[in-house]
Structure formats: structure tokens, C-alpha cells
Write a structure and sequence with these properties.
- With 600 residues, the chain is of the alpha+beta class.
- The protein has 15 helices and 32 strands.
- It is globular, with a radius of gyration of 27 Å.
- The protein binds guanosine-5'-triphosphate.
- Guanosine-5'-triphosphate is lined by residues 13, 15-21, 82, 133-134, 136-137, 164-166.
- This is Elongation factor 4.
- It comes from Edaphobacter acidisoli.
- Residues 4-186 form the Tr-type G domain.
């Protein structure tokens, strides 16, 4: 297709501002099936089952639109993941576009992710069309939202399009704006092939499926392609676009986006951000910006039942086929037995993987407290990276410890600033900026140690702001900090899986809070259980779980049988997630007590 008739764009928005609803509306207007219709159809037609892997993730859609100028345009809507954990993927999706629709909820206004995504789009040189959504709501304030876009994002908003994705009001104006305001792609279809991978996943029926933007040259069926970062060569077996129904094509030329299936067995061979070229006529340079993204958050995963260890390994291997951004390696714990040390992009990523293991693979898991990776210089000059407290070097051998630090942007209403400032100070934050982005909204910029964020930051931010704060962050560097390893002793025995790394000046406080939380979480046993927090041989806090006196059932005085049963069931359920350590049963929550310390 003539590149002048192609437009590639993304929709960027804060969560819940209406991205999916608006996409569906655009699909409807251009006569494509909506993704919901598509899914219903897929379920109806069993012979389409093979294509399911594609359709479910088919968020990159080609639409054909006949504009008011009488011309037909090819509009490629490229989906971007919505969460900060996946910001690298967002950046690669944006790199595949020339423009973006910035959707802002007219009743909520600009939020932290609106800003973060808008800045990212601006830094990629994209043309941005502001869209003010949900104007059907009584609380919608179009003028105020425009002001916020101008003031905080710094984009002219007088021409922002007010729409309701729900009722469809004004949505067709967006299509005209896409055609007239966004630039067409550039690129020579005759040049050597350069295509950017912006998503890839494993489909059980078809193998690895890659979404790519052809930047220059032409990608053809049957072609031998080379992945630039690793030099691997594959044959393209099939290719096409989603409309959102997959439609097979024989070529994609400069400016176009689409999917291809090649003889690729492992998603790790086609990482997001990598460049594909023609193996026989390679391009000189890969596209800029490829990064092998590293895990930032680490935790141990163990099965409650040690016989399920092999199942966990198989499940992790399967998940890894589809997600090259998480890592795992075997580790063992005196307390928990054999497990895996896993690395994730962030906390949400950890939660997603954990939930899939439990739901899809039916595993009962114990997760240890998440932590970060420290760079430690030893007294003999060696530098080691440690993400597992059990590998923490002896303090006498440590010269210097560097911890990862993020820049966090928190957007909130004025009245919650006090509470948030206290929270970030508690979390060792250092203020970078304090700025009013409208009369009542404040943007705080802080440097914070990542280790404090992975503990309980989100939940506490939510509670001090009653949900009226949004957070966005990116890795900013490291601080040299006096970190120490804190051990937890249960009945005098250190439980290795409970050890955490904390800042020395906060260790006493943290230890006290932690053992007191553990006391609540560890059920009474037939004997007294001491819980202690220690740094080296120094005990910094102690609590005692007193011995059980009576049978639980004795608590149900009246003898109401249904209550009794409920209590027993509850106990049984609690048991499932217990791990017996020495003589003491420790529930799953206790391993994560450090996450719950801030809770009331
Ligand atoms: N009243 C009203 N509600 C809307 C409108 N657009 C979307 N919504 C509602 O807002 C909620 C969020 O919309 P989604 O389209 O799921 O938002 P999203 O940004 O895709 O959300 P995530 O995928 O979770 O990031 C849904 O309940 C929608 O029905 C609108 O124009 N008016």
C-alpha cells in the first residue's frame, strides 16, 4: 500500500479511562468486528480454535477507513500494555507508531500514567491527539480537563476531541483526525529489510507468533530472516494482519505492521525491541533502542507440598516459553526445601505469574518476601550481585552496597499531600520536585529505593490517599546504602526463607513491626513460640505466641453446629497453606508478613 495512505497509532491512557471501549468503537465504525464479537465467534467455531492464540492477543488491528476526502486509508491500531511494570514494552509499541491518541477521562482528569505515557510518546517524537472521554457523565468537566492537559502534559488541548466511547458520540471525528493530523510512515520498500519486534508470544498450535513493524524494506512469506541481536535465522512460514480476524498475506512492506510465524521455537529468540532483517540481504544497522530488560524484583517460589517440586519446575518452564522477561533458577532453603529464585519486571508481574501457576497449574505455593538486587563490593575488591538474602556476604567482607533507586511521580489531590509526604519520608524518599499541575492537584517527584516500593508501598499509598493518588516510576540509578540482613528466628531457630534485607537505620523499627505482625499470623500451637528478629547475633525484637489452651471448638459456646463446621473448614483451609518448620506450623501469610506490616 502507498505509505501515504497508512496511519499507525496507539491509544494511550491511564487505567480505566476507556482505552478498550474506544478501540471497540473504532473497530465498529470501520466495519471491523469488535474484539468481543470476535471472541464470541471463535468460541462458536471449533475449526477456528487453531487461531485462538492469535485472536486473544490480537490487539493490533488493521482497519480500513474511507475518509471524507474519498480516499481509503489503512489504519493500524497498536495496543500498548497499561502498567508501569511493562514500560519497556510500551516504549517499543510506541516506537512502531507515528502518532497516538491520548485518552483522558473527563471526570478524573490527568493521572500519573496519562503523564508517563504522554511523555514517553513525546520522547518518541509521536504526534499526539488529545481525546477527552466520558463526556456523557454528569461529572465530566471538559474545560478543566483541557486545562490539565495543557498545564501538566504541555500539549495544546484547544482542539482536543470530546467524545463518549460509551455512546459513540463524536467518535467518528477521531478517525478523521487520525487521517489528517497524524503523519504517514516513511521508509523505502526496496531497501534491505528492517523490522521492529514489538510483541511476541508462544501459541500452542502455531509456535512463536511475532508482531512487527516493517520500518524499511519488505517482509515476504518464505523469506529467510535473521534476528539481529543473536544472529539466528528462521524461515517465514506464514504472515498476515488481524482485522481483528487473522488474514493471511504474502508480504508486509515499509510502514506496515502485522504478524508472522516462522520456524521459531522459543520466544526468547525474538525479544521485544529486537530487529529482524533479510538473512540474504541484511541491513547495516539494527534499529535503535534494543534493551535486554532485566528483572528488578526477586522472590523465592516453593510448593507447599514438596512432592510437587517437579511440577513447579515444568510449569515455570512452560510459562517461560511465553514470557522471556521472567527468570528462574533452582534454590534451596533449609526451611522450605527445594524451590526457585524467580526474577520479575515488577510486583504486578510477580502476581500475574504466581496466579497463573496457582490457577492454570493447580499448585499451592509459598512465596517469600520480594526483594531487589544489590551490587556489593567486597573488601577484596570483587563485585557481586545478590538478590537472595541467603547469599548475603558476611558483613565483615562487605566494603560497599549499592541499591537500585527509582524516580517516582505521584499525582494526587492537595488534601492527601501531607499523608503521602510522611509515607515517602518513611520510605527513605528524597524529594526532587513539588508542583501544582492544577489548582488542587499536586505532582510529587521523589527518588525512592526500589526495595521500599516492593514492600508495601502501593497499598499504603492507596490507603493514605483513599485511592486518589496515582503512581508511575522508572529506574533511576543506585544509592550507596548501609543495608543489613535481618533474620527471623522461630523458637530460637533462624528460618532462612524469612530473612530480608533492610536499611540499618530502619532495622530496629522494621524488626519490631515484623515480629509483631508474625505473632498475629502464626497460629497458636500446643507450646509457646518465640519469634525474634536478629541482625547477626544481635536480637532486635521479640514477641511470643502463647500456647494454645483450649480446643477451638470450645469457643463456640452455644454449640451451633453450622458455626462449628465453618470454623473447622476455616481451620482446614488455613492448614493447606501451612508449612511445618521444626515443630511450628507457619502459614503462607507469615512469609509475606513483611508486606503487611504497614496495614492497620
Ligand atoms: N460513562 C462512560 N463510561 C465509559 C466511557 N468509556 C469507557 N467507559 C467505562 O469506563 C470503564 C473503563 O473502560 P475500559 O475501556 O475498560 O478502560 P481501559 O482504559 O481499557 O481500562 P484498562 O484496560 O483496565 O486499562 C468501563 O466500565 C467502561 O464501560 C464513556 O465514554 N462514558
Amino acid at each position: 500500500m502507498d505509505p501515504n495512505h497508512i496511519r499507525n497509532f496507539a491509544i494511550i491512557a491511564h487505567i480505566d479511562h476507556g482505552k478498550s471501549t474506544l478501540s471497540d468503537r473504532l473497530l465498529e465504525l470501520t466495519g471491523s468486528l469488535t474484539s468481543r464479537e470476535m471472541q464470541a465467534q471463535v468460541l462458536d467455531a471449533m475449526d477456528l480454535e487453531r487461531e485462538r492464540g492469535i485472536t486473544i492477543k490480537a490487539h493490533t488491528v488493521r482497519m480500513m477507513y474511507k475518509a471524507e476526502d474519498g480516499q481509503t486509508y489503512q489504519l493500524n491500531l497498536i495496543d500498548t500494555p497499561g502498567h508501569v511494570d511493562f514500560s519497556y514494552e510500551v516504549s517499543r509499541s510506541l516506537a512502531s507508531c507515528e502518532g497516538a491518541l491520548l485518552v483522558v477521562d473527563a471526570s478524573q482528569g490527568v493521572e500519573a500514567q496519562t503523564l508517563a505515557n504522554a511523555y514517553l510518546a513525546i520522547s518518541h517524537g509521536l504526534e499526539i491527539i488529545p481525546i477527552i472521554n466520558k463526556i456523557d457523565l454528569p461529572s465530566a468537566d471538559i474545560e478543566r480537563t483541557k486545562e490539565m492537559i495543557e498545564k501538566s502534559v504541555g500539549l495544546p488541548a484547544s482542539d482536543a476531541i470530546p467524545v463518549s466511547a460509551k455512546t459513540g458520540q463524536n467518535v467518528e471525528q477521531i478517525l478523521e483526525a487520525v487521517v489528517h493530523l497524524l503523519p504517514p510512515p516513511k521508509g523505502d520498500p526496496e531497501a534491505p529489510l528492517q523490522a521492529l519486534i514489538f510483541d511476541s508470544w508462544f501459541d500452542p498450535y502455531r509456535g512463536v507468533i511475532v508482531l512487527a513493524r516493517v520500518v524499511s524494506g519488505t517482509l515476504r512469506k518464505g523469506m529467510k530472516i535473521k534476528v539481529m541481536s543473536n544472529g539466528k535465522v528462521f524461515d517465514i512460514e506464514s504472515m498476515g494482519v488481524m482485522t481483528p480476524k487473522p488474514v493471511e498475506l504474502t508480504e508486509l512492506s515499509a510502514g506496515e505492521v502485522g504478524f508472522f510465524v516462522a520456524t521459531i521455537k522459543n520466544v526468547a529468540d525474538t525479544k521485544v525491541g529486537d530487529t529482524i532483517t533479510d538473512a540474504e540481504r541484511p541491513c547495516a544497522e539494527p534499529l535503535p533502542g534494543f534493551e535486554d530488560i532485566k528483572s528488578m524484583v526477586f522472590a523465592g517460589l516453593y510448593t507447599v507440598d514438596s512432592h510437587e517440586h517437579a511440577l513447579l519446575r515444568d510449569a515455570l518452564e512452560k510459562l517461560r516459553l511465553n514470557d522471556s522477561s521472567f527468570t528462574f533458577e533452582p534454590e534451596s532453603s533449609v526451611a522450605l526445601g527445594f524451590g526457585f529464585r524467580c526474577g520479575f519486571l515488577g510486583l504486578l508481574h510477580l502476581e500475574i505469574i504466581q496466579e497463573r501457576l496457582e490457577r492454570e497449574y493447580n499448585l499451592d505455593l509459598i512465596t517469600t518476601a520480594p526483594g531487589v538486587r544489590y551490587k556489593i563490593t567486597l573488601t577484596d575488591g570483587k563485585v557481586v550481585e545478590v538478590d537472595n538474602p541467603s547469599r548475603w556476604p558476611d558483613p565483615s567482607e562487605i566494603e560497599q552496597i549499592e541499591e537500585p533507586v527509582i524516580t517516582a511521580k505521584i499525582l494526587t489531590n492537595e488534601e492527601y499531600v501531607g499523608g503521602i509526604l510522611k509515607l515517602v519520608e518513611d520510605k527513605r524518599g528524597r524529594q526532587q520536585n513539588f508542583e501544582y499541575v492544577s489548582e488542587t492537584r499536586v505532582m510529587l517527584t521523589y527518588e525512592l529505593p526500589l526495595n521500599e516500593i516492593v514492600l508495601d508501598f502501593y497499598d499504603r499509598l492507596k490507603s493514605v490517599s483513599r485511592g486518589y493518588a496515582s503512581l508511575d516510576y522508572h529506574l533511576a540509578g543506585t544509592w550507596v546504602s548501609p543495608m543489613v540482613k535481618m533474620d527471623i528466628l522461630v523458637s530460637g531457630e533462624p528460618v532462612d526463607a524469612l530473612s530480608i534485607i533492610v536499611h540499618r537505620d530502619f532495622a530496629y523499627e522494621r524488626g519490631k513491626a515484623l515480629v509483631s505482625k508474625m505473632r498475629e499470623l502464626i497460629p497458636r500451637q500446643m507450646f509457646e513460640v518465640a519469634i525474634q528478629a536478629a541482625i547477626g547475633s544481635k536480637i532486635v525484637a521479640r514477641e511470643t505466641v502463647t500456647a494454645m489452651r483450649k480446643n477451638v471448638i470450645a469457643k463456640c459456646y452455644g454449640g451451633d453446629i453450622s458455626r462449628k463446621r465453618k470454623l473447622l473448614e476455616k481451620q482446614k483451609e488455613g492448614k493447606k497453606r501451612m508449612k511445618r518448620i521444626g515443630k511450628v506450623d507457619i502459614p503462607q501469610e507469615a512469609f509475606l508478613a513483611v508486606l503487611k506490616v504497614g496495614e492497620e
